[in-house]
Amino acid sequence: MNAVLEIEDLRIGFGPLEAVRGIDLVVERGQTHCLVGESGCGKSVSALSVLRLLPKRARFSAARLAFEGNDIAGLGERGMARLRGDRMAMIFQEPMTSLNPAYTIGSQMIEVLRRHRGASRAAAVDRCIAMLERVGVTAPAMRLGQFPHQLSGGLRQRVMIATALLCEPALLIADEPTTALDVTVQAQFLRLLADIQRQMGLAVLLITHDLGVVARVADRVSVMYAGRIVEHGATGAVFAAPRHPYTRGLLASIPVPGKIPPGGRLGSIPGIVPRIGAGFAGCAFRARCAVAMPACAAPVPEHRLADGHRFACHLGPDGAWSGA
Amino acid sequence: MRRAALSLGAAIVAFAAILAIFAPLLMPHDPFAQDLTHRYTPPFWLPGGSSAHWLGTDGLGRDYLSRLILGARISMLIGVSTVILSGIIGTTLGVLGGYFGGRTDAVVMFIISCRLAIPVILVALTTVFMVGSGLWVVVLTIGLLLWERFAIVARAATRQVSGLDYIAAAWAAGCSRTRVILGEILPNIAHHLLVIATIDMAIAILLEAALSFLGLGVPPPLPSWGLMISEGKDYMFFKPWVIEIPGIALLILVLGINLLGDGLRDRLGARTEQ
Amino acid sequence: MIRFIVRSLLLAMLVCLTVLIVSFALTRLSGNLAINLAGPDASAASIAKIQHELGLDRPLPVQFAAWADRALHGDFGNSYLYHQSVSSLIASHLKVTLQLGAIAIGMAIIIAVPLGILAALHEGTWIDTACGLVALIGQAVPSFWLGLMLILWFGIDLRWLPIAGLATWKGYILPSFVLSFVAIPVMLRLTRGGMVDALRADYVRTARAKGLSRASIVLKHAFRNAAMPVVAVSAVQLGFILGGSVVTEVVFNVRGVGYLAWESIGKGDFPVVQAVVLLFAVTFVGLTFLADLIGAMLDPRVRG
User: Fold this and answer.
1) What does pTM read for this prediction?
2) Is the pLDDT of residue B3 over 90?
3) What tens digit of pLDDT does each residue of C88-107 get?
4) Domain-located, residue A153
5) Are B133 and B217 in contact (CB under 8 A)?
6) Lowest-pLDDT choice from A68-82, A168-182, C49-63
7) Does B216 reach chain C within 8 Å, measured CB to CB?
8) Which of A160, B71, B107, B187 could hold A91 in an S-S bridge, CB 3.0 to 4.6 Å?
9) Which helix (H) or strand (E) holds A34?
10) Which domain holds residue A280?
């Protein structure tokens, strides 16, 4: 297959904390890969680390971080800047604050083309108008002269995605792009994302805490917990037969019409994601896990099933103690 | 680093306070006693200096160290008294405006705007000239002029605090307005006012020095540091130390007060956030 | 926007009117002006004569009305000392003060803004600490003493610059530098604070994600937002610099408005004092208004 992004053993730390503890991830061309988990599980910093947008104080290491086949783990700031916005693009959760309030939409879009393509102003304007039109922004020529505060949240997020797509990147990373939007706008935006991805053959890494979003758009899903990927597989397979207790907990907490008996309670996982320091061993989920055992403090084995489906738990595929 | 700055500031201010309080005991000589046979004796580290006058003598043969110590008393006195006066004026205005809002607030804001428009140094100079120079004239003049920071901060802090739950609770419990203001609001904005007090104290001390330097501040023979610089300036080309010593003293004291203020802001600010 | 301008203008005029009253009242603080003017040995007859000539024997409100009426028409009477109209006296002294003030605010911006940006880019490092120290010392140093020390260093020890007066362009350097010290600490801290916030803002992260150059990220995206309050404050600081001109002009023996005011106060030349107080106040009010206006213009959210 055609891997756009390959990550092996990615580790990120802040001071004494280990935010990401060795994750592997592959995103292929034309594929949407969802990284899902509760807030604080390390999914956003993982995404930021691909573009090397982590704060200066962060510790970062990876055995392999390959983009379109080239290892970029050792690439300097200048080299990364050349890739960002051109071959790989990112959009963020807060469309309100992610656009610069002091500049017009046009100014903030055109600068990308001038930077990466050396385009003339006129050519850049044409391209921006075409791209805004493509993401469904009405009156695109007028929008270029407007300031961010004059647009609605949904429009701003469309502007963000249009800006991200200007240079036809190979990879788009979207960090909770719909969280700040209204539910109806959310649905429209996800449909737009899916359309564009199909047309452009994009590889999309979508960060979300919302399994509803995952179900709608993801080809593959990685469930992240406390800095590790605890379960990964094709979306259908994971949803149909979740193996890790955490995945099961998450799935139990989505409201599914018709599935919850009247008066029945919506499931939720009690507790919060722990912060993990150096020297932590065993399964990080054991404090909240309904089926935890004393032995869960031992190093966790990984089980591999068909079609790349894998999960990390002391309970094996058959639900029995795997004895690792 | 920040802790060190706070400690250094506190140490400088404490040292100046000790000098000010115990000035009569610490001065080695009578600061007013003239000795025209020993004019401009250099300080001990320069050739011709002696241990009889550690920091030398001024143009009238008065002991510079003794005058410097008495000068610390004057600076601290000016700083503390003007801050008390301007603090009372500014806090009253600010709390009234912030608490009652509406028309009261508009009037307070207008008074603050007018005060900001008035050129402090000119008005202070004129006032001292008209009323006649004197230590307490200077205190009153500066105190009546420098209250705007207190007013602005007290107003903003009161507005912020008034919206909090426990103030509303005090209201609901039937506390009188005076009770709410004195018992609930003032204690909760006090840490802001303390920081402003340090800023204003530094400004008051610098302003007094400038007025005295311009000849319309503390009258001679009192040794205000600003006056010492003014008296020494005609001789500074030959004896630079006569302006260097009081100038550095002024710089260190004001720096210490500002360090203390910055440190307090960091610590008290952090505490309110938690 | 129009409403905002009209409101600010009305308020500014009201403030100026109040200052007009204050500046009048100021010179009536002492019991009898005429005694001050005539000197301690003057006879009662000559005092009465002076009183009558200056209209000081009329009731205060009448005196004020007459003075204010003329003042509003730009006529501040004649200087007791120079026997010249106050307006022309001030006009002849204003040029140097404005020149020095303009150079000073320029110097303050050139020194404070880059230092503030530098400190923010290296937040928490020794560079940041050093810039903080510059601001602290700038705040603590008495400007008249700084002026004298600079005269000693650059005028006497090094002989690079003249010790007083504005005969050559070199004469402008030291007084402007001392004046700029009034504004440097505030502008440095404001720039640093604004830049620290801006560099942490989401739109700067977006700018980085777009692969923009470091210069574009720092100067176009971060600084533009951090600059708004700095620009507004610069206008207000220019007002404070004017106030500082009194001390600086005396130290450097520059015959500007500040020097004129100091001289007039010391000699009881009140028509001049009143006029300068009013001039400084009106200038400050005007600059504050300008600052509000610039602030509003720079922020598209207000402008829109």
Assistant:
1) 0.84
2) no
3) 899 899 999 999 999 999 99
4) no
5) yes
6) C49-63
7) yes
8) A160
9) strand A32-36
10) 3-87+167-312
**Nearest by CB to C281, which of B118, B210, B247?**
B118
Tell me whether residues B114 and C19 touch, CB distance under 8 A: yes
Residue B187 Cα, gap to closest chain C Cα (Å): 28
Average pLDDT, chain A: 85
Cβ separation of C144 and B251 shorter than 8 Å?
A: no
Q: Smallest Cα–Cα separation from B145: which of B190, B194, B214, B78?
A: B78
Q: Is B228 on the interface with C (CB under 8 A)?
A: no
Is residue C140 within 8 Å of B202, Cβ to Cβ?
yes
Chain-chain contact of B127 with C268 (C-beta, under 8 angstroms)? no
Domain contains A221: yes
| Inter-chain CB proximity C203 and A98 less than 8 Å | yes
Whether C202 sits inside 8 A of A92 (CB atoms) is: yes
**In total, how many domains does chain A have?**
1
CA nearest neighbour of A309 among A181, A192, A220: A220
| Strand partners of residue A233 | A221
Dihedrals phi, psi of A312, to nearest 5 degrees: -120, 105
Interface check B269 vs C, CB under 8 A: no
Nearest by Cα to B15 from B263, B262, B249: B249
Tell me, what CATH number does A223's domain have?
3.40.50.300
Residues B214 and C250 sit within 8 Å (Cβ to Cβ): yes
Helix (H, G, I), strand (E, B) or coil at C64: helix
Touch between chain B and chain A: 3 or more Cβ pairs under 8 Å: no
Q: Does C179 lie at the interface with B, CB-CB under 8 angstroms?
A: no
The tens digit of pLDDT for each residue in B116-162 reads: 888 899 999 988 888 888 889 999 999 999 999 999 999 988 888 87
Partnered with residue A220 across adjacent β-strands are A33, A234
CA angle B27, B29, B32 (to 5 degrees): 100
Q: Which domains does chain B have, with CATH numbers?
A: 2-17+63-273 (1.10.3720.10)
Domains in chain C (CATH in brackets) are: 31-73 (no CATH), 87-303 (1.10.3720.10)
Q: How far is CA B258 from the centre of its chain?
A: 10
Three-class SS of residue A85? coil
Structure tokens at C67: 């003075």
**Per DSSP, which regions of chain B are E strands?**
none
Biggest CA pair distance of chain C? 85
CA distances from B185 to B105, B155, B176 (A): 16, 11, 12
Residue at A118 is within a domain: no
- Picking from C123, C127, C203, C221 by the largest number of A CB atoms within 10 A of its own CB, the best residue to mutate is C203
Q: Please give the span between the terminal C-alpha atoms of chain C, in angstroms, as a whole number.
A: 8
Q: Which residues contact C45 (CB under 8 A, 6 or more apart)?
A: none
Contacts with B219 from chain C: Cβ below 8 Å: none
**How far does CA A288 lie from the centroid of its chain?**
24
Residue C203 or C267, more confident? C203
Measured distance CA(C283)–CA(C281) in Å, rounded: 5
pLDDT level of residue B272 (50, 70, 90 thresholds):
very low
C and A touching (3 or more beta-carbon pairs closer than 8 Å): yes
From residue A42, alpha-carbon distances to A5, A176, B58, B125 in Å are 18, 13, 70, 64
Sequence-ordered strand ranges (E) for A209-272: 220-225, 228-234
Cα C56 to Cα C35, C51, C78, distances in angstroms: 11, 5, 15
What are the start-end ranges of the H helices in A218-281? 235-240, 245-252
